[in-house]
Write a structure and sequence with these properties.
Number of helices: 13
Strand order of the largest sheet: 1-4
Distance between the termini: 6 Å
Helix content: over 70%
Number of strands: 4
Order of helices and strands: HHHHHHHHHHHHEEEEH
Length: 312
Amino acid sequence: MADPVALVALALDATIGWPDRLYARVGHPVGAFARFLNLAERRGNSPARREGVRRGLGVLTMVVLIALTGGVAWWFDRESHILFGRWSWIASAVLAWPALAQRSLYVHVRPVADALLRGDLPTARVMVARVVGRDTQRLDQAGVSRAAIETLAESFCDGIVAPLFWLLLFGLPGVWMYKAINTADSIIGHKEPRWRAFGWAAARIDDGANWIPARIAGALVCIAGAGGWAVMKRDARAHASPNAGWPEAAMAGALGVALAGPVAYDGVTQIKPWIGREGRAASPKDIVTSLQIYARACLLLWVIAGSVAWLA
């Protein structure tokens, strides 16, 4: 039996999360990625530079970020083996724990449902704005519900399945290199003119890093939700992202609701195709059900992590 690093990291995340007091004192490790990326973007993404130069500097930024992250994580892992010997796997689990987001995702989405269930739409809009990038000021109850469910499904991959996948595959360096890549995509990997060239590498690398985990996430949602396979197979590729559509379509099918569709960013409405187009409008109760499906899918990940440790 191998050391249960991933299983213990999942348990720490589910029971403790990343406490507010700890965040207030030391921040979060991804904050270091964000500071590096913002600095690199300011220095290398000047509009005065040619597009090809900006793209090349974006590639260089990603190479440096991934190499530094992997090297630091490898060093910490090696030092824990030297310091703690046979118990070093506990240190590895503690170091991997902040890379997971089971508890954080739940505690950010649940208040949206609670606000809607008590009829407080303005508060629900404020709460959902904390976890989505779209305009929320004019969303109705169905729009807020849809936004919460979509971010829960998509973040199930980015925040839990993918980090765990790379942790199981390559240990501590794997999980933190993934977090660096995913953070880069969220900060600079946009399609808008300002970031298109400089963030090209971040977006493409993130697509590759999430390709397998997204499909695993979709399958887990279907299993946990006892359905959704047909909608996932049909609509997963309707999403603009090559990966986000898999867990999102799986959740739409499992709930029997329609997700995606028209959405506004910075006052501009974008017409996106519906996922689960024959489904009904999402409701606050669907957020609650989606959280139940999410919790069961997370438990399936615990089973996978425990099985890998047992069989390895």
